[in-house]
Backbone:
């Protein structure tokens, strides 16, 4: 750098050759550089949330970890413990590490996949923007919109499934974009593969599968005729739909009903039915309200201004005559989460409470995150095309993000702690840790209702008799006083399977209520019966 | 001539509308209903600022005696045994000349408020001048400046004691200087104005940020020459940035005098909730120990979580929304692309001021601005949109659909805002109105209808009306008189600006050089 003084002016001259060197070395290793930076960011935020104790604020995160743990430890370990409540892939991915108590209780076993997905999703956004011809500036900007979002950073630090889903869905969208550009078979297969993976994570992936297949089919039908459309869609669907077929098969083999995950007693449908009967499923049958609710969720997750700017970017993108029609068609896939969530709310398959539309409560507001990669991509596009207004957009987004950091505005944490997702299980689990730890005997509990208590108690999985323990459960609900020393359940709540099964069991009279909490009650077998209760595994290996 | 006539017109309408009572109120008068609820001090922002002016001029200090402190509540703080204003002090100092002149004429309060009206008049002139500078025609410039003054909620705040017109004046003056001049002196004044805006209202530091950046980009020039990037810094102009130190030094002096510490801002001190019988303060959230509770700084005021509600309140809600209170300025958005094609840098600056204004106050904890008429925080945005509107009128003025929409929205906006200006700003947010309805068993309005009710049931707060016209005109007749006067004048200007007539009616001379369609009968035919 040279500095000169000229008639009242200072002149700084910077030779950009050095900077060009830095730039070209970044260009050569852009993916690696991004991966390293995102990995550090990911790790830093995991450590931050782990150390401040809110890394596992979602009860669902603890349930996910417990499902993984039950595969390797418990009274009836095995793959069947994967169950049917949630799609299986996140739990399969936990198996290599979940046997370790630290990985289980720190949540790392589930968070690792979210963290890797965070890095992967960031890279995919960058690549997507590269594929639509954006400069480095636009690409990095889009990447930053995703990577510095506090809701993303929280959920990548926890054992939830959102980030894994986002990464696989974005991968599916990225490769389908490439296919639309170059029509190379390998891109189509890669897209199908990642969409197949996403279908094994959350049902959003199923919709993406249908949405992509339809987009592909309609596009090819109009451009290349029936035969090519038919062949290509069949090829795509064979791989992309493979996970769905496997899931039906799994339900048939384990639960003797291929539709068990849809209509089973622990299904989302059953939960939604309860909410509907309580008159709280207000979105059902109301498309405008469903859209509004989901829009609010997106706004809360993206601090509103970013979503609005993303929308402007989308409008510009679709109005841009320089962008080929096939690229525009491919980008429709980015909107699949929006369509899916609105339809799921409309048909009553999903429930979402947001502040402003529902009185002072949150539930599942994290679903709004599913559009963040889409918004990031369109924000990247907007910044690329906004000319002199670029710096305004950067200032506004910078201001918004800095205020969100300053105010620690992380709606997904509120969703976990304050909303219906975050019922406080600490009292019950603390009681169990203090009174059951080190004692002989089993705790009878419904994992479907109280998995978070099982996790938070810190007790080994084999201390619990739950619905997934086969004969232990069947025997214990018949004769609780012979099999369990403690019972945890919500008394008089028939949605709690333990109460439903044991309320008329004669042995239940031999228990006494030892503590009562808002979330559950704790019963202990009267000391007179302790001598006859089974306290060690007596049933051999079960099928 | 056109300009002078328009300035006189604005001046007289403001004189006819400024709120106030006759007399020089003392401490005991101020707490009377005649001055508070039914008078010019209906809301705490007016009270707090006037009280500081009062105590500076009458008591020669910055502290409020207990009875004046009660008048100021809840925008009150307590430091070192003294009650002090929670507001940035700028407005209270700026209006002192008005108070002193008014006091001589036995209208101290009216004199104080009229200083704000003078700033509003200055804003009219500045909008006109900047619009011309941006390429608008003279008549469109005048019309858009009139729209800002009379067809937006800025009119309500031109007749009472709020900071918004001074803030807008500082912004517009900076814009004018930056667009008009390149000299050291323009930068020097710009930086003084930027820093002064902080003293007028603390959040202005964010609002003026784009202006600071714009000024710096004109001081530090970038040039790319092959592989070399040259930055040339004009040291003389850079020294102008130091001018910001002048107002800031004054603020430090004020802080030292008021809080015993030059770096203590009033917003970081706990607010007083009420005053005990013994004259001691009772703070929000605690009892008496003032140091145990420090209000968090930006966390407290700005929340990204509030943006959804904030945007709703500012843009579309019937409580404050621009769509309800000043829809005519929304047509200004059409002017953004017109200017962008010609002057990208200037467009960027204007858009950034409006965007920061909207985003910032959407994050604001209380986007309603308490009890208020329209979205008072967006007054700078109305000014920016008025500038764009002047260009939109020139560009789209020949399109019949634009003419129809514009004329309709203009008259609607004038009706609403003249009604607001002549009546009251004490419009509660919807939630408060509903709570009050439940409490008193009587429906409370939270939108423009509240002003209509006020006009028909209580009258007008206009000083001139109450002193001169109340015996010969009903409040409704007075409102209709002012409305017809402004609507008529602006309607005539609109006909010229929209190229519907070929002369500047009602001005006696001058041809409309933009006029093309001589055939008056073809006014509403597509051209």
Residues:
């Amino acid at each position: 750098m040279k500095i000169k003084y000229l008639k009242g002016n200072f002149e700084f001259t910077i030779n950009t050759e050095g900077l060009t060197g830095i730039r070209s070395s970044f260009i050569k290793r852009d993916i690696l550089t991004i991966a390293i930076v995102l990995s550090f960011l990911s790790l830093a935020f995991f450590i931050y949330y782990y150390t401040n104790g809110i890394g596992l604020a979602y009860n669902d995160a603890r349930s996910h970890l417990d499902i993984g743990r039950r595969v390797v430890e418990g009274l009836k370990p095995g793959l069947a413990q994967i169950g049917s409540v949630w799609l299986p892939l996140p739990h399969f991915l936990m198996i290599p590490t979940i046997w370790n108590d630290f990985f289980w209780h720190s949540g790392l076993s589930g968070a690792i996949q979210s963290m890797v997905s965070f890095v992967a999703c960031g890279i995919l956004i960058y690549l997507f923007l590269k594929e639509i011809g954006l400069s480095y500036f636009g690409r990095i900007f889009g990447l930053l919109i995703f990577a510095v979002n506090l809701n993303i950073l929280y959920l990548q630090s926890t054992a939830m499934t959102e980030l894994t889903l986002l990464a696989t869905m974005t991968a599916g969208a990225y490769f389908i974009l490439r296919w639309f550009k170059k029509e190379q078979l390998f891109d189509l297969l890669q897209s199908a593969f990642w969409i197949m993976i996403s279908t094994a994570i959350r049902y959003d992936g199923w919709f993406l599968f249908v949405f992509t297949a339809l987009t592909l089919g309609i596009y090819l039908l109009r451009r290349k005729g029936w035969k090519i459309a038919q062949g290509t869609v069949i090829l795509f669907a064979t791989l992309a739909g493979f996970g769905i077929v496997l899931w039906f098969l799994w339900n048939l083999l384990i639960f003797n009903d291929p539709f068990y995950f849809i209509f089973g007693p622990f299904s989302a449908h059953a939960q939604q039915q309860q909410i509907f009967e309580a008159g709280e499923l207000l979105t059902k049958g109301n498309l405008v309200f469903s859209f509004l609710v989901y829009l609010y969720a997106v706004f809360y997750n993206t601090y509103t201004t970013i979503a609005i700017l993303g929308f402007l970017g989308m409008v510009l993108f679709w109005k841009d005559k320089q962008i080929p029609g096939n690229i525009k068609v491919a980008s429709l896939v980015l909107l699949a989460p929006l369509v899916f969530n609105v339809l799921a709310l409309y048909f009553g398959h999903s429930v979402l409470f947001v502040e402003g539309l529902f009185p002072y409560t949150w539930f599942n507001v994290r679903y709004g995150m599913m559009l963040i990669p889409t918004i990031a991509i369109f924000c990247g596009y907007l910044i690329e095309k906004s000319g002199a207004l670029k710096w305004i957009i950067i200032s506004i987004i910078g201001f918004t993000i800095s205020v969100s950091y300053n105010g620690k505005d992380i709606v997904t944490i509120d969703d976990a702690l304050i909303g219906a997702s975050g019922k406080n299980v600490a009292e019950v689990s603390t009681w169990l840790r203090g009174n059951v730890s080190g004692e002989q005997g089993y705790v009878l509990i419904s994992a479907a209702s109280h998995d978070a208590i099982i996790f938070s108690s810190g007790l080994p999985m084999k201390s619990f008799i739950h619905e997934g323990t086969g004969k232990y459960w069947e025997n214990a609900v018949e004769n609780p006083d012979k099999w369990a020393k403690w019972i945890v359940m919500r008394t008089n709540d028939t949605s709690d399977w333990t109460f439903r099964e044991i309320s008329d069991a004669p042995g239940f009279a031999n228990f006494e209520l030892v503590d009562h909490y808002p979330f559950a009650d704790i019963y202990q077998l009267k000391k007179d019966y302790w001598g006859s209760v089974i306290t060690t595994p007596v049933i051999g290996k079960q099928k | 001539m056109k300009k002078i006539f328009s300035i006189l017109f604005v001046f007289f309408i403001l004189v006819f509308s400024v709120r106030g009572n006759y007399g020089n109120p003392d401490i005991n008068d101020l707490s009377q209903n005649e001055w508070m609820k039914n008078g010019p001090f209906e809301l705490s922002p007016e009270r707090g600022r006037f009280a500081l002016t009062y105590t500076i001029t009458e008591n020669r200090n910055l502290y409020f005696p207990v009875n004046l402190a009660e008048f100021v509540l809840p925008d009150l703080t307590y430091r070192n045994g003294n009650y002090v204003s929670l507001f940035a002090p700028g407005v209270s100092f700026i209006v002192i000349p008005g108070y002193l002149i008014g006091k001589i004429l036995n209208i101290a309060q009216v004199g104080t408020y009229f200083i704000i009206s003078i700033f509003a008049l200055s804003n009219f002139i500045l909008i006109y001048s900047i619009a011309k500078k941006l390429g608008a025609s003279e008549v469109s410039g005048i019309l858009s400046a009139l729209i800002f003054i009379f067809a937006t909620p800025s009119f309500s705040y031109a007749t009472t004691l709020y900071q918004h017109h001074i803030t807008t004046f500082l912004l517009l003056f900076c814009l004018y200087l930056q667009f008009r001049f390149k000299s050291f002196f323009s930068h020097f004044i710009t930086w003084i104005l930027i820093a002064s805006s902080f003293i007028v209202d603390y959040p202005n530091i964010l609002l003026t940020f784009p202006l600071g950046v714009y000024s710096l980009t004109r001081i530090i020039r970038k040039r790319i020459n092959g592989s070399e990037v040259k930055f040339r810094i004009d040291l003389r102009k850079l020294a102008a940035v130091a001018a910001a130190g002048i107002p800031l030094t004054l603020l430090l002096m004020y802080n030292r005098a008021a809080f015993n510490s030059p770096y203590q801002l009033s917003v970081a001190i706990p607010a007083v909730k009420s005053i005990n019988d013994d004259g001691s303060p009772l703070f929000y959230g605690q009892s008496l120990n003032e140091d145990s509770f420090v209000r968090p700084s930006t966390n407290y005021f700005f929340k990204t979580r509030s943006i959804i509600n904030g945007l709703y309140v500012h843009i579309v809600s019937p409580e404050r929304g621009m769509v309800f209170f000043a829809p005519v300025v929304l047509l200004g958005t059409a002017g953004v692309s017109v200017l962008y094609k010609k002057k990208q840098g200037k467009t960027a600056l204007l858009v950034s001021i409006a965007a920061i204004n909207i985003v910032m106050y959407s994050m604001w904890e209380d986007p309603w601005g308490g009890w208020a008429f329209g979205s008072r925080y967006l007054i700078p945005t109305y000014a920016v949109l008025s500038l764009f509107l002047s260009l939109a009128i020139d560009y789209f003025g020949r399109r019949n659909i634009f003419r129809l929409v514009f004329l309709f929205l203009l008259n609607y906006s004038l009706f609403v805002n003249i009604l607001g200006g002549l009546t009251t700003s004490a419009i509660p947010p919807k939630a408060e109105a509903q709570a009050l309805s439940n409490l008193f068993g009587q429906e409370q309005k939270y939108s423009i209808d509240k002003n209509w009710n006020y006009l028909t049931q209580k009258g007008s707060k206009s000083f001139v009306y109450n002193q001169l016209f109340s015996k010969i005109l009903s409040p409704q007749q007075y409102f209709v008189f002012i409305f017809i006067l402004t609507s008529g004048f602006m309607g005539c200007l609109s006909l010229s600006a929209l190229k519907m007539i070929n002369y500047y009616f009602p001005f006696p001379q001058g041809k409309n050089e933009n006029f093309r369609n001589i055939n008056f009968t073809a006014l509403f035919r597509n051209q």
In short: Chain B touches chain A through 37 residues (CB under 8 Å). The longest strand of chain B covers residues 228-234. Residues 2-422 of chain B form one domain.
